[in-house]
From TrEMBL:
Residues 69-162 form the Phosphoribosyltransferase domain. Belongs to the purine/pyrimidine phosphoribosyltransferase family. One of its GO terms (biological process) is purine ribonucleoside salvage. The gene is Apt1. It catalyses: AMP + diphosphate = 5-phospho-alpha-D-ribose 1-diphosphate + adenine. One of its GO terms (molecular function) is adenine phosphoribosyltransferase activity. Homodimer. The keyword Transferase applies. This is adenine phosphoribosyltransferase. Pfam families: Pribosyltran (PF00156). It comes from Chloropsis cyanopogon. It is found in: Cytoplasm.
Length: 211
C-alpha cells in the first residue's frame, strides 16, 4: 500500500506519504513552506500540509480536540484558506459549514463588515443574512490569526446576526486556526473566546517572530 501511495503521490519535491514514527502535536507544521516571494505574501505556505493525508487529518484533530464534547451547531470558515480547514472540521463533526466571504461574491441578501487584514489592506467580508439563527453556536475557523483583524470581523458578523462564538464559561464553541500569534489582536481574541491552535508552546516565539 505504501509503495502504491508513493508511486502516485511522491515527487522529488513533495513526499506526501512520509509520516514520522512519533506524531507529536504540530509535527505537520514542518510541512509548511517558507515565503520566497517577498513581503507582499504570507511568511509561510500551508499548502503542502493540506496535501499530506495524515498531516491534514492530524491538524484537524488537534484543532478540534479542545472542543470535544462541546455543543457546536455549525462551523464557519473565512475566505479563502479558512474554507479548507473549516470544511474539513465540519465534515469530521458532521455539522454544516458556512462560508464567510469576501464582499462581492454572494448573490443573496448579506450583512457586511469592513476590516484590515494582516497586510493592512482595507477589505470587506460578508455573510448571507439568513444563515445564522439567534443562539446558534458557531466554531469559527481560519488558516492563521496574525493581527487578528480578519477573525475579529468574522466574530462581529456572527454576533451581529445573533450567533454565539465562545465566551467561556457561557458557551463552549469558539475560534480555531493553525496558528494564533501573540499580537495585540491575537491576544484580544484569546482573552475573550475559547481558542484552539496547533503550535506547541516552545515553538510559539518562533511563529510570533516569523522565523
Amino acid at each position: 500500500l505504501h509503495a502504491r501511495c508513493s508511486q502516485r503521490l511522491q515527487s522529488p519535491r513533495m513526499d506526501l506519504c512520509h509520516v514520522p514514527a512519533s506524531r507529536e502535536k504540530g509535527w505537520y507544521l514542518a510541512l509548511m513552506a517558507p515565503n520566497v516571494k517577498g513581503p507582499n505574501y504570507a511568511w509561510l505556505d500551508p499548502s503542502r500540509l493540506y496535501c499530506h493525508p495524515q498531516g491534514l487529518q492530524d491538524c484537524v484533530a488537534d484543532l478540534l480536540q479542545p472542543f470535544q464534547g462541546d455543543a457546536i451547531d455549525m462551523v464557519a470558515g473565512i475566505d479563502a484558506m479558512g474554507f479548507i480547514l473549516g470544511a474539513a472540521a465540519a465534515a469530521r463533526l458532521r455539522k454544516g459549514f458556512l462560508a464567510i466571504r469576501k464582499a462581492g461574491h454572494l448573490c443573496v441578501q448579506t450583512v457586511a463588515q469592513p476590516y484590515s487584514d494582516y497586510s493592512g489592506r482595507q477589505k470587506v467580508m460578508e455573510v448571507r443574512s439568513d444563515a445564522i439563527a439567534p443562539g446558534l453556536r458557531i466554531l469559527l475557523v481560519d488558516q492563521w490569526v496574525e493581527t487578528g483583524g480578519t477573525m475579529r470581523a468574522a466574530i462581529e458578523l456572527v454576533e451581529r446576526l445573533g450567533g454565539v462564538v465562545a465566551a467561556p464559561p457561557v458557551c463552549p464553541t469558539g475560534v480555531a486556526a493553525i496558528c494564533m500569534e501573540n499580537s495585540e489582536g491575537g491576544k484580544w481574541i484569546q482573552e475573550r473566546y475559547k481558542c484552539s491552535h496547533c503550535v506547541p508552546p516552545h515553538l510559539q516565539p518562533r511563529f510570533d517572530q516569523h522565523q
